[in-house]
Amino acid sequence: MKEIKTLIVDDEWLIRSELKRMLQPLAQVRIVGEASTIAEAASLTEAFHPDLVFLDLQLGDGLGTEFLNRAKQKFALIYITAFECDLTPVKHHPALACLSKPINKEKLYSVMRTLTNGEGVHV
After folding, report:
1. Is 123 part of a structural domain of the chain?
2. Taking the model in full, what pTM does it have?
3. Which residue range(s) make up the domain with 8?
4. Helix/strand/coil (H, E, C) string of 52-98?
């Protein structure tokens, strides 16, 4: 099974921590970094070339789309948001899923099964 290099981008440390905890049992997931700003996310993406990015739609320093417009690499994308999953502002950046905060563990695992089984997005 291929390792999935994963980056978590959210300005809330508690969400990043909880997401890391939930992903820990998934042997194929390797978290390569966490970012709380657009600049950090862009830098980590360039350094680690993640296969998967969990991206908050609204960061403290701007919208997640600003990061996506700066990212040069391709990766699978899962949006996370504290609001309703309205993907209209990010329609040009297709994602595997949108997860509402607090993140539901069963829904997260379902999305990860879809990703690892090659249904939809391939990493």
Report:
1. no
2. 0.90
3. 4-116
4. EEEEECEECCEEHHHHHHHCCCCCEEEEEECCCCCCHHHCCCCCCEE
